[in-house]
Amino acid sequence: MARRRKRRRTKRQEHQKRIVRPRILLPRAKLVRTQSPFYTRMPELVFRVPPLGTPEATRLQRLMDMDVAFQLKLKELERRLPHFVTSRVKGGSGFPLSELLRWYFWEYLNRLNKHGPESFPLSFNVVQSFMRFNREYMLFDLRDEVEHLISINDYFRWYDSGDMPKEPRSLQDILTEGTIYSYEIVSDPGALRICGDSQQVFAGVSFVRHDWELSCLLLAGENPPLHSDRDVLDSQPMTPAPGREGFAPAPELTVQDRYLDGYGGFAKVIVLTRFDLRNGKHDVRYVLLDDGPLFSVLTDDASVFRDLPPADVEAYRQAAIDGLERYDDLFSALAAMIYLPAFFAVQPDSVQEFEVSTQLHAMREDKRVRQTIEELGESQCVSRRSIRCLGVAFGRDEVSERKITPPEMQFKCDGYWKAIGPQELGEDKNGDLVVGRTWVSRHESWSARSPQSFMLLRNKRDLDGPDPGVVYIQRSAAHDVNVYKVGLTRRSADVRAAELSSATGVPLPFGVLANWEVGDCALVEQRIHQRLAAFRINPRREFFRCELSLIVQTIGAVINELV
What span, in angstroms and rounded, lies between the C-alpha atoms of 16 and 10? Predict the structure, then answer.
């Protein structure tokens, strides 16, 4: 018996040595790091981290502290992660949709790090389609992007002509699976808009296709907003939901931050939904109203009501239906916009493709950006983004109204994303692992409302004035990235582009990116040049070196103010 106890004690001591030794002998730990259970299963552990303060969390922390390979990997991740985030946040085109997607990237990163995956907002249900889980950095990363610049008037003119495809399923051949297709809409006071309880304008729309499912994000604006500035300022402090006590409104944001740049007086509205292209089905709906420091959310996602007392569910459902009715036409417009990829595909010869520089390029001399490039390499730091553009023109020939009939989409909700326990792995529709939630199949139609026909009205603005003409944005492929000509002509922008292209010293022709017909072109041009003065290359020339998104927003803002 004594010999057996001694043998057991010896085995226990050897087991303890096997655990302790890697903490002391760092070189050996590096040699055997691939054998570490934490190193090889690190991504899985991120999925299973229990809440802080629980016995499970304390035990897991102790085990991780004892695993040298895990600690080495963690230190490497801590060093590289800030650079990776910089490359993503500052690697966009600067257009509103690009910035919105990067805001979601940043928001999810913060929530995952500070509160865990169970803290993700309701918008995760749809926005998760625009992201993939990066197992190297343990965060949600944006998918590849293809960006476009359009006029909403041009699109709905084409849509109303009947030339668009008749079957939504045809989009599967146009849209590359898992790629974000964004369509930035050039602002113009005379653009078609929805006129109901409020005027609603379109700033941009993004799509991403996974198999037959098309996830959609529409950035819109409304004036007046559902919640006035006074309502927002007078609202009571937010009461966090159970388990989200760490959340609070963003103190650095005010009610002025809720408005769209280039659209005077229009507060941001984000619309999210999904379409089944094969079966013509329409899924759950979300409306996020920007109230400055926070968002107000309207949705028919039944998972929202799972924690409510049964007696309160019906009242909340009715409130959701009433709130969503205000935005029915926005959902119908979004359904009609799913053919935007086809709009570009059917006229390839008219598409201009050019590059814009990102903040990473503009800030390449900044110390932090230089460190990011050195750490990650040039290939991981996007300095230029390609934009596809159909020449955008705003003039007198636009009809005052259009009746739009969206594709037939029957409302049917097949499921929703449900929050799961901190030590559980979730699955998506295809059975793949996801973080923090799992797909729950269901068949419920309490909020059933398919997209309906709606009217788009053109805002009337006086194009007659003392000096009628056209203000334009043009560029030549011979010029550096982010160099644009912003000028005026009293003829057509295309005629002016042809004149510039034939001038001596211009090796490549000019192309018109956008032009606006105005009643006093000299005054409008003067105001635009004044606001862009800091970016003017030569005071005697009309060339500016800055982001195209800034020029578009500036022109829209000036014209809005002078209408």
Answer: 10
Question: What are the φ/ψ torsions at residue 61 (nearest 5 degrees)?
Answer: -65, -40
Tokens describing residue 297: 């959310």
Pairing of strands 131-134, 145-150: unpaired
- Residue 172, classified by CB atoms within 10 Å of its CB into exposed (0-12), middle (13-18) or buried (19+), is middle
Length of the chain: 563
Contacts of residue 343, defined as CB under 8 A and 6 or more positions apart, other chains included, come to 150, 155, 158, 159, 164, 390
**How would you classify the pairing of strands 192-195 and 454-458?**
antiparallel
Nearest-angstrom CA–CA distance, 235 and 255 = 12
- Using an 8 Å Cβ cutoff, are 288 and 218 in contact? no
CA 150 to chain centre: 17
Residues 527 and 547: their CA atoms lie apart, in Å, by: 18
Helix axes 68-89, 96-114, angle to 10 degrees: 160
Residues whose CB falls within 8 Å of the CB of residue 76, separated by 6 or more in sequence, listed in order: none
The 3-state DSSP class for residue 520 equals strand
Q: Beta strands 510-518 and 267-276: pairing type?
A: unpaired
- Give Cβ neighbours of residue 229 (< 8 Å, ≥ 6 apart): 255
List beta partners, residue 222.
200, 267
Residue 443 and residue 495: Cα distance in Å, rounded?
A: 58
pLDDT in tens, 327-350: 999 999 999 999 999 999 998 888
Instruction: Give pLDDT tens digits for 8-36.
Output: 444 444 433 333 323 222 222 222 223 33
156, 404 contact by CB (below 8 A): yes
pTM, 2 dp: 0.80
Burial annotation 438-447 (CB, 10 A radius, 16+ → b, else e)? bbeeeeeeeb
